[in-house]
Amino acid sequence: MLLVDNRQNKIEVTNELEDLLEKIIDFTLKEEKVLIDYEISLIFTDNSEIRTINKEYRKIDKETDVLSFPMLEYPKNKVYKDVYQNFSFDDSYFDEGKLVMGDIAISLERAKAQCEEYGHSFFREVCYLSVHSILHLLGYDHMEEDEKIIMRDREEYILQEFNIAR
């Protein structure tokens, strides 16, 4: 289940955008072998609010495009996609039978600026940020070059499945 909370009023959030994000997030999770009910909170913010969140939780006083707050803990050096088949989460990770995966905050204001900068659609940018963040909730990272390659390949594969191109 995707819980959407629109906390900004600078960019319209259409039903079409919400539906697309729900589909692409669900697809991403299924591709990553999350085959159980889940709960993810998706918060739409503006630059000011995401800067406040970034400062509070990461001690970085700067706006950003997306923040991910995973609720799950994974074994070190896990093999992506296999963690859900080989790793069990106890009851504390569930709420009413749904695996609570975490929260995502996206600055739609920043996404709008980035889509113009990169020359692609607003939908593409918000979908990319959503997939990127979902992969973070699943334990992916991009701090090391080998991790970055894996993560970027997954992002592009998922977006291509929805015919979402740069």
From TrEMBL:
<feature type="binding site">
    <location>
        <position position="142"/>
    </location>
    <ligand>
        <name>Zn(2+)</name>
    </ligand>
</feature>
<keyword id="KW-0698">rRNA processing</keyword>
<keyword id="KW-0479">Metal-binding</keyword>
<keyword id="KW-0378">Hydrolase</keyword>
<comment type="similarity">
    <text>Belongs to the endoribonuclease YbeY family.</text>
</comment>
<dbReference type="InterPro" id="IPR002036">
    <property type="entry name" value="YbeY"/>
</dbReference>
<feature type="binding site">
    <location>
        <position position="136"/>
    </location>
    <ligand>
        <name>Zn(2+)</name>
    </ligand>
</feature>
<feature type="binding site">
    <location>
        <position position="132"/>
    </location>
    <ligand>
        <name>Zn(2+)</name>
    </ligand>
</feature>
<dbReference type="InterPro" id="IPR023091">
    <property type="entry name" value="MetalPrtase_cat_dom_sf_prd"/>
</dbReference>
<keyword id="KW-0255">Endonuclease</keyword>
<keyword id="KW-0963">Cytoplasm</keyword>
<dbReference type="Pfam" id="PF02130">
    <property type="entry name" value="YbeY"/>
</dbReference>
<dbReference type="InterPro" id="IPR020549">
    <property type="entry name" value="YbeY_CS"/>
</dbReference>
<keyword id="KW-0540">Nuclease</keyword>
<keyword id="KW-0690">Ribosome biogenesis</keyword>
<protein>
    <recommendedName>
        <fullName>Endoribonuclease YbeY</fullName>
        <ecNumber>3.1.-.-</ecNumber>
    </recommendedName>
</protein>
<comment type="function">
    <text>Single strand-specific metallo-endoribonuclease involved in late-stage 70S ribosome quality control and in maturation of the 3' terminus of the 16S rRNA.</text>
</comment>
<keyword id="KW-0862">Zinc</keyword>
